[in-house]
Amino acid sequence: MEHKHSVEPIVRVKNLTKIYGSGETAVRALDGLSVEVQTGEFVAVMGPSGCGKSTLLNMLGALDQPTEGTVWVAGEDLSKLKDVDRFRARTVGFVFQLHNLLPTMTAQENVEVPLQGQIGSRKERKERAVHLMELVGLADRRNHLPGQLSGGQRQRVAIARSLANSPSLILADEPSGALDSQSSDEILTLLAELNSSQGTSIVVVTHDRRVAQATQRILRMQDGKVVSDHRITDPLEEDLRMFAQSQFGQTLLESSRTLHRFVEEQDLAALRQLLLTYDDGAEESGETEAPSSEA
User: Does the pTM exceed 0.70?
Assistant: First the structure.
């Protein structure tokens, strides 16, 4: 389902810089980053460890403050928030790799926690939590403790909890990173369904190409900057793009002498040309030739 984009993006980041420490040991986690996310988008942020992905997510959730630059979420300038706790409770929902459920509370009670102080009566909070447990497909597990649930089920509860106050934006940091492939696929399907049916804007940080390919748009970061930004239009093209950016793909693009022992020169040249089409670095430097329009 394609969502109509509003005039005002759900996320607007301008010249965002974050420096940890000072002097020679200073670390520039974000380096003049600018990006927008439209309302209703499902966006993946990828890149190597230490590139600034989680730092960006923390900035969007008002969990950290920038050294320079501005961050707007749902029309609010986060540097001018009067009530940060209220913003976190009502505007943004968080899903982390570790679900962070309270072990002595049932699944339903965990979902009710963010509703404290937001919805008046105990009855209303219970009704809201029951509805959310149904939404994530765990109505029959709502009275179970976290220790009685599988990893995938616990993460579903965490997603239900993140939706408690109908946030405008869900921020997910490696939400399937600790799960097996089947549970991971189920979580991705659930997030995609929530994006489609509820119109919830989602930004997910991930190392997993399968997670990224389940979204609508991929931002790739490196050294605190966005180095590529593209919408997913075709699964095969996305597979080729991922392959081109893999270590093996980059080896092919560098035309390693070792590979000539196994691949004919003309075949290697053809493969390199195909991968160049989907290599973002080559794209930016102007090395990519336009793909043929022939069928």
Answer: yes
